[in-house]
Amino acid sequence: MSQRLAKEISINTRERWAELTQKSLSLVNSQKPAIENRLALSCVYSIAIQSTEQHQRSDLGRSALFQFAPPTISSFKVGVYRDIRETTDNHQNTTKPTKIQSSPPKYNQAHQNTIKPIIIPSLQESKIAFIGGGNMASAIIGGLVSKGVNKQNIYVSEPWDVNRDKLAAVGVRTTTANSEAGADADIVIIAVKPQVTKAVCEELGASWTQRQTLPVVVSIAAGITLNSLQEWSRTSDGRSAHVVRVMPNTPALVSEGASGAFASADVTPAEKDLVNSLLSSVSKATEWVDKEELLDVVTGLSGSGPAYFFALVEHMIASATSLGLSQEQATRLATQTCLGAGKMLVESSDEPGQLRKNVTSPNGTTYAALQTFEALGLKETVDKAVKAAASRAAELGNTLAK
């Protein structure tokens, strides 16, 4: 009985992932289909890996929704995820699917163009300063170190002793003074809370007055506009740095992130390459949008997206346990199904909708589940959720700019 039930849940779960992803993609295809598709597909695969790896360390049923215990920076150094990642990589390198790869992959080619974790020479030679050493900054630092960037070229300003000690243990340079970390940096990553970003930028701008060439500034502070960042970081003689806004997501903490980026008009192609190289250490997709307001859409899609899937997996696990599976069985089946569906979405030449159809037999079990989704308004619910997140991102940006 349990085996039949487990098999049915596993089959239905794959189809639910495909259905949910298809609904998410339909919301943004009219604006930037190539960009949004890659972000959505990367988001699905990334949170699948994040969920699977989280289950290796703790009870996903307790922490799947909205949060998980992030690895420390030292965990990146010793490779806390090595066994899981090696298993995944070995499977990808040795397995040759016949059906999925039967035609040139439409997604895969575009996706591969954005995910190569290449550290370019200019980044290797650059002094990189992080203002803030929290989870996201620590993830990027860990990615850079793992790719061979000189630790002594990485400077971090972090007020909390515990975070600073972890970073120092990796071998990067640490300080409590923002101006010290960013004084002569080539690239400065603003990784602080939005509420303190203005004060941080003003401090940095004052410290750059004597510099002939200003650094490239990369902000991952949510909601802070380019105009605000440039105005706040002006030097006393009126110069402003070249600024890039980035909207990452939490799967970056397991090197499976998806990021949206927008640059000020004065950012050069070489500087974009520098930022791409920086982000490639933790992101499998970095998409440059041509309008700043599209970062709000990115926020609704991939920025907040991991929580959507955590919520779905949480509810699927609860449903399966109510039908008789143990918490452990349901969690393993759901997280692995999530990972498998994500890989299919990234690697397949089929659209998400076609993948859904491929596993939906007329009047079968999957059909029954999808009909229930449709009757309860899944499309409308996802539409409202993504738009609500995008709208809230815009509201926060307007508030913080005042």
TrEMBL record:
Entry keyword annotation includes ATP-binding = no
Ranges where the record places region Disordered: 87-108
Any idea where the Pyrroline-5-carboxylate reductase catalytic N-terminal domain is?
Answer: 127-223
What pathway or pathways are given for this protein in its record?
Answer: Amino-acid biosynthesis; L-proline biosynthesis; L-proline from L-glutamate 5-semialdehyde: step 1/1
Question: So which domain of life are we looking at?
Answer: Eukaryota
Regions of biased composition (Polar residues) lie at 90-108
Output the Pfam families linked to this UniProt entry. F420_oxidored, P5CR_dimer
Q: Does the keyword Amino-acid biosynthesis apply?
A: yes
A GO BP term, please? L-proline biosynthetic process
Q: Give the E.C. number(s).
A: 1.5.1.2
Name the Gene Ontology molecular function terms of this record. pyrroline-5-carboxylate reductase activity
InterPro entries the record matches: 6-PGluconate_DH-like_C_sf (IPR008927), NAD(P)-bd_dom_sf (IPR036291), P5C_Rdtase_cat_N (IPR028939), P5CR-like_CS (IPR053790), P5CR_dimer (IPR029036), Pyrroline-COOH_reductase (IPR000304)
Matching SUPFAM superfamilies: 6-phosphogluconate dehydrogenase C-terminal domain-like, NAD(P)-binding Rossmann-fold domains
Keywords noted in UniProt: Amino-acid biosynthesis, Cytoplasm, NADP, Oxidoreductase, Proline biosynthesis
Show where the Pyrroline-5-carboxylate reductase dimerisation domain sits: 292-396
- Reaction catalysis annotation: L-proline + NADP(+) = (S)-1-pyrroline-5-carboxylate + NADPH + 2 H(+)
Q: Secretion signal: which residues?
A: none
| Annotated NCBIfam families | proC (TIGR00112)
- Family label: Belongs to the pyrroline-5-carboxylate reductase family.
Instruction: Spell out the protein name for this chain.
Output: Pyrroline-5-carboxylate reductase
Q: From what organism does this protein derive?
A: Penicillium brasilianum
